[in-house]
Amino acid sequence: MAILAQRESQYARSLIEASLDPLVTISTEGKITDMNEAMANITGRTREQLTGSDFFDYFTEPQKAREVYQEVFARGFVADYPLVIRDHKLTDVLLNGSVYRDEKGNVLGVVVVARDITDQKRIEKEMIEAKIFAEMATVIAEEAKRKAEMATQIAEDAVKAKQQFLSNMSHEIRTPMNAIIGFTKVVLKTDLSDKQREYLNAIKISGNALIVLINDILDLAKVDSGKMTFEQAPFKMAHSISAMLHLFEPKIREKNLELIKEYDHSIPDVLAGDAVRLHQIILNLVSNAVKFTSNGRITVSVKKEEETPENVTIRFAISDTGIGISEEKLDSVFENFQQATSSTSRLYGGTGLGLAIVRQLVEAQNGTISVNSQLGEGSTFSFVLTFSKTDESVELDNEIIELETEAMHINVLVVEDIPLNQLLMKTVLDDFGFERDIAANGKIAIEMLRNKPYDIILMDLQMPEMNGFDATVHIRKVMKSNIPIIALTADVTTVDLAKCRSVGMNDYLAKPIDERLLYSKIVGLIKRKHALKDTVVMPVEIEKKRCIDLAYLMRRTKSNPAMMLEMISLYLDQIPPLITVMKQSLLEKDWHSLYAAVHKIIPSFAIMGIGGDFEQVARKVQDYAKIQEEAEVIPELVTQLENICRQACEELKEEYENLKSKNNG
User: Fold this and answer.
1) Domain spanning 234-389 has what CATH number?
2) Tens digits of residue pLDDT in 499-554
3) Per-domain residue ranges of the chain
4) In this structure, which topology does domain 18-116 adopt according to CATH?
5) pLDDT tens for residues 394-437?
6) How would you classify the pairing of strands 378-389 and 368-374?
7) Out of 410, 442, 525, 613, which could bridge 466 as a Cys pair, Cβ 3.0 to 4.6 Å?
């Protein structure tokens, strides 16, 4: 029996020692009577030191320890009571205790196990901290998002402010420059002494240089802000290049240079693209070549690189035998305000903006540009652009249209508020032999139109009382007049030009006025008006012609009849309801619904080959609907959209039936 009791005692001891948590037995007086090794380790005391010592002294809060001890006696047990053991690291524990009795049931003391919850506490703390940090991060992220949105808004406002500033500055500078250059040209036509002619030519050259600088800054701002737009209009490449190079012939002869033209006649006669931007690119490059070449030759090469059924890729190269560019400067010549050397501007003039604009104009059309040069031997600037093929024909206007005898009597209404510009236009039109009247603003012009017939209107845009835009809308919508209107604008930003077209102006001319160009535009518009037998002249309704071109759809579907039928069917199902929504939204001034309807219509233009002019009209409706401005213009634009969409539906119904018939056959 003694051996068995000993074994049981050893077994009990081994169980106690196996516990990794501190375990103690306490007498009814609160003295430690026994403990395991874990208790000794956590307190740093020996068994002898612990035995008989006060249990409560080993906690940071002895009174709480005494209370839990008393609770064990009162209830018989206690569970998960939090305390902190007073050791070298203040260990957090959960106290679990119960009374133990002898064979007769008498209470001998308390058994207490202190479970170490340090890791649990650490994890809880970390989780709390993580939650706090996550909440802080969310707050920071939201604040960052808010600041980013504010920064974006500020940036957008800054761009708008810059555009408005440039627009205003353009107008304010061009207005007096128009008079300076215009009257200089007028005086140069009179009898002058050699000295007077020399001084006036100096004024004219300086004025032209200032206009070039203004144009460069505005063009760069337009490209940087993404406001530059590119047309897809048919033009004759060979004629276009020749006409541009004619401009340089006097300067080339003056410098005794040789101009060599190399043109690849395998290039299709008519291509679709932005001829104006192409002119701008080549004019900049040829102008540089002439400027930096003192002797030798300038070569302009236009060669076909690749041709597909839809497109033609052309390489343009302008070579000179001028001063050249050093190798270390080649990489920077296309940057803003950069020139090959610090003395270049002093010796040759210029702003260093021309090549920056050229590069951005080329790259904005998905083209590439490069330069090869050797110092002292010359440079070659080459760029590659792709143009669309087209079956459309192009009528070439002569630089100056010769008037027929019966067309000599032209009556012009000039709408201009600045007296100096009024006097200039009187002088220029008198030189042309035209009759002219002057109106100081749009309101006066409308009254004059009611009382007297005119052949054409030259309309300034910014005027008091009624500006040129409002006056044009009134002439087109209220008076139902198709009289040709040419905008005279000192602000040539893209936004204004698009607005000119959208309100019904036929053409525009930038100030300072080029007299030869003004003459050509006036006569050309009047001749076209007579040829059309007084058909209403609106920018997107010049002639009634087929509005769809299924070439793109055929490419995308690989001419698969079933797919084409499905695409056309979708268009015919979706567009009429959108037209209804668009008209109803306009009627109810529900700008959000109007914007959404037009937004859904726009992608169909490219798919069904509807002209880019109509897409521009649609985007203009979107713009007005978004900002809820210029509401008086929207009805006319919506009507244009409705008409072209209905015409497209009619044409597509025919195509659908033809395809269906061929497919079934």
Assistant:
1) 3.30.565.10
2) 787 888 888 887 777 777 788 888 888 877 665 444 333 443 434 567 787 776 77
3) 18-116, 122-224, 234-389, 405-531, 551-664
4) Beta-Lactamase (3.30.450)
5) 654 434 444 443 445 889 999 998 887 888 888 888 888 889 99
6) antiparallel
7) 442
